[in-house]
TrEMBL record:
GO molecular function, one term: hydrolase activity
Species this protein is from: Phytohabitans suffuscus
Region (Disordered): 638-662
Segments forming a coiled coil: none
The name this protein goes by in its record: F5/8 type C domain-containing protein
All copies of domain F5/8 type C, residue ranges: 189-336, 337-481
Top-rank taxon, per record: Bacteria
Annotated InterPro entries: AL/BT2_dom, FA58C, Galactose-bd-like_sf
Amino acid sequence: MIGDVTYGGLQRAFLEKVNGEYQGALFRMTQGLEAGVSEVNLGPDGAIYVGGLGAGGNWGQTGKLTYGLQKLTPNGGNPFDMLAMRALPNGFEIEYTQPLSAATATALATKYRVKQWRYVPTAAYGGPKVDEETLAVTSATVSADGKKVTLAVNGLKAGRVVHIRSPKPFSAANGQSLWSTEVWYTLNAIPGQQAVTNLALGKPATADSSCAASEGPEKAVNGTVTGGNLDKWCSLGANKWLQVDLGSTQTVSQFVVRHAGAGGENAAWNTRDFTIQVSTNGTAWTTVATVAGNTANTTTHNITATQARYLRLNITAPTSTTDTAARVYEFEAYGTAAPPPVNLALGKPATADSSCAASEGPAQAVNGSTTGGNSDKWCSGGTNKWLQVDLGSAQTVSQFVVRHAGAGGENAAWNTRDFTIQVSTNGTAWTTVATVTGNTANTTTHNITATQARYLRLNITAPTSTTDTAARIYEFEAYGTASNPGRVVLFDGSNMDNFVGSNGGAVTWPLGNGGVEVLGGDIRSRQSFGDFRLHIEFWEPNLPSNITGQARGNSGIYLQDRYELQVLDSWGDTTLANDECGAIYGKLAPSVNAATPPETWQTYDVTFRAARFNASGVKTENARVTVVWNGVTVHNNAQIDGPTGNGAPEGPSVGPIRLQDHGDPGANVFYRNIWVEPIT
């Protein structure tokens, strides 16, 4: 709960994490208290105590007391109100405390009014509200229990405040009227959508000249236009240009230029003629926008997404008057910022000369963990000790990190002493990029000139600084700046080479029916994953009516080999149980039965966020999952509090996708079109 100083009431917040960052909604809870609220406390008696003050301006509600202390005692009632609001890829889910009435649910999309806007940050207190838009609700779907409404809203933009209002009458099934008809959601990011940011904001800027020291090029990338006439870059030079260095190559798809009028100056001084150029090296330039005769305060220039590090604004006619000064309040560049370096080796297929034990195989060196005990490593006692990782495709690699015995808690004298690191694009011709002798450190970092490589190899010539002859590698990490590890196609209908059988051998599931038949034991993907998006399609057989319950086309999709997403013939089943199709088995029932009839292909689109663990291996956050079943969201960022039945134990390591063979007699389930997109 949050106290409102200006309006003398309480507001209630709901938070969720989207793309790893918090955002959420604000609901009005109550108003009309005796003073502007500046302090809120929950007392030992369960009552809410609010303190108020007033000092003029924003610090007090007009016409109310300049101080106050009030006690609000819960009466045990259950008012009809909005309980939560969650962002979706194409709208929102609003959860209510009670089921909607039939009258309210009729033509429900017409019962909502939606606007969005943003605020401009300023050096002053607050900032102006700009870019306000009215949006259309294209559909509104009520959940089976009547308490959740999924809104599809066209035109939502990240970085906006979204205001939704439900004008009365808007009632619950018991006749209660909606307590608060408004909600404000701060949409910093849209789920499943990469954030589009102003890449030029705060970056180093240079120019041909400046009218004054206070009107330098840095003013055009400071994110504000409201700081007065000096909050701009100004130039009187013969060749007027402004240049921004993004620091690294980024993907740019839009430019926005805010001219004199945007800063409150004479609109006739808006930049008339100019070009925008991009470059990857600061020498060879490509013109991506040419403008002549402009009179607008702000101009927006959408371009084909292009790679650029350097951006340049060239001005040939600064105004539409005889004034010769160029005035640019902001030069903005929008696109997708390149993510920080990622561990390209994480979860990738790994091989080695040998292993000390089956539990100490090469996969342990690319599982993202060093805290799983002495067996959480690759160990080799072979004569020629080597570890090899296949990245799946050529990637740009610029750094290696090797975590030796001491990093896993073993004797530091067993840290790998002498070794080389090699790279290859084809697995045959190798290039040595790092040579180490006499190492004693627990962890070694090897920065190299960025190079293309698909295959990585660690060759060990002296495994320890003692007479012990075993090599011990807890993690072999490779870092690069690939914008996305890319979609990993696990099954396209042609073969099952990207899976292994339950015994580690080849998969024996037969191809057919446009997919692969579940027959011959569980299978697992060769590659393991952390956070990811999964697409998979399944086909249920049409079984006799005397085959019921868990015997009807039972299979399962184990996320990270830990959490089962149930596959079952649930067509026509009116129950919503945690063992039906769409359930996180034994833990979470789907919100809706979205099944289609047997002998039709169905789809799951899953967004999975792995559980989080601290450096000591203690879980700090549960795994989360969103499941869209045949186009219907049945789990929305739901927490999974532990492994499901027959799932692998939780831990910080990545894990494969497992497809279950339940072993029931009769016709079988089929799968097709399986792919994963790792989320970094």
